[in-house]
Design brief:
Layout (H helix, E strand, L loop, with lengths): L39 E6 L23 E3 L11 E3 L10 H9 L4 E3 L5 E6 L2 E5 L12 H18 L13 H5 L3 H7 L4 H7 L6 E3 L4 H11 L11 E5 L2 E5 L4 E4 L8 H4 L3 E3 L4 H8 L7 E7 L3 H4 L2 E7 L4 E6 L8 E7 L2 H5 L7
Length: 352
């Protein structure tokens, strides 16, 4: 994998076409009276019980973030070998190391479908908008746009002062590191519309064969060095190196890289103890709540209406959708995110 030096952090496109067409209206507002039912609905959600090392090559992360392909063949045998991604799936600008790894493993990428109009749903009104218009991929909220454009310019200037190789050396590193983007956003005093736009990101490209193909091929290249179903219980560090303990194995090495989610790595016993600030961070770093839902249709009918499949809405439970169809457009797949309140309010509760 290549290592890029002497580069600075650039702000990835912050505002993007993000909401996909639900297929309920034509671009000029007429209703489609023919109700289309999805062939299959696929759902993926965060799993807080995921262990630091799972039972397959999909990455040591909760289901919301790890890579996991779902085979569509059982639902529709006419599309053999077609998959949709249940976990993380996109790659965008500045993710150079992942792009390099994909090329080394022979995994190709393709652009997220982006031809046609987006739909902006606000206060019960649907407004078609073109990503090639004066506002670009942003929803047509002129008030919100006027509020956030100066902030985006400011963020670009801030990014130029942050060295990629050593971001902690930036002039205001302590100040910026002491807040989340959510607290930074709220401090701007924007309205609901502008805050909603700041939460949007553009999704650039996907992987042919599904994102898990990278994990699978990387694991194959490593062979028996990849040990599954071996959750780490203890890490001991001494002068002779590092020892990692699972329920069945003891592994020694010069160094160890812990890549699990902070909330799960906090369950590992460390010898000596972690520094106090790091231990406190792990205790205060919960995973987000989200559900990824994908409706599978026999064809992407929204494309026939001149729609890109991206919808932005101010009401839920799904406020954001994308066209998530395979590279050849068959079958048609609409992806939506339920987050964050909807993801937790809809979870099963005990009868008692």
């Amino acid at each position: 994998m290549s290592h890029t030096t002497d580069r600075r952090i650039s702000r990835r496109t912050l505002i993007g076409g993000s909401r996909s067409d639900s297929g309920t209206r034509r671009p000029h507002g007429r209703r489609d009276r023919r109700r289309r039912r999805p062939v299959r609905a696929v759902r993926g959600a965060a799993d807080p019980r995921t262990r630091p090392v799972g039972d397959r090559a999909r990455g040591p992360r909760p289901r919301r973030h790890r890579t996991l392909n779902h085979d569509l063949t059982p639902a529709d045998p006419t599309h053999p070998g077609k998959v949709v991604e249940i976990g993380g799936q996109w790659i965008g600008p500045t993710q150079d190391h992942l792009a390099t790894l994909a090329r080394e493993l022979g995994v190709q990428t393709f652009k997220t479908y982006n031809d046609g109009n987006y739909l902006f749903h606000e206060s019960g009104k649907i407004t078609p908008c073109s990503p090639k218009g004066p506002l670009g991929p942003m929803p047509p909220d002129l008030t919100a746009d006027a509020q956030i454009q100066p902030l985006l310019t400011r963020l670009d200037e801030i990014a130029k002062t942050v060295p990629l190789a050593a971001p902690w050396t930036a002039p205001n590193a302590d100040e910026w590191d002491g807040q989340t983007f959510e607290t930074f956003k709220r401090a701007q005093g924007f309205g609901t519309g502008a805050n909603g736009l700041l939460d949007l990101t553009i999704e650039d490209s996907r992987f042919v064969g599904g994102s898990q193909l990278i994990s699978i091929r990387a694991a194959q290249s490593l062979g028996k060095r990849v040990m599954l179903s071996q959750p780490v219980r203890r890490i001991s560090q001494g002068r002779g190196g590092v020892t990692v303990y699972t329920d069945a194995l003891t592994v020694k090495g010069r160094q160890v890289i812990v890549t699990g989610p902070p909330s799960l790595t906090a369950l590992i016993r460390y010898e000596p103890d972690l520094p106090a600030l790091r231990a406190q961070l792990l205790q205060r770093f919960p995973q987000g709540s989200a559900i990824k839902v994908e409706a599978v249709y026999r064809r992407p009918f929204w494309r026939e209406r001149g729609l890109a499949g991206q919808v932005t809405s101010d009401t839920g439970p799904i406020k954001l959708t994308f066209d998530n169809s395979p590279p050849d457009g068959s079958p048609g797949v609409l992806l939506g995110f339920v987050e964050p309140a909807g993801a937790t309010s809809g979870t099963p509760r005990p009868a008692s």
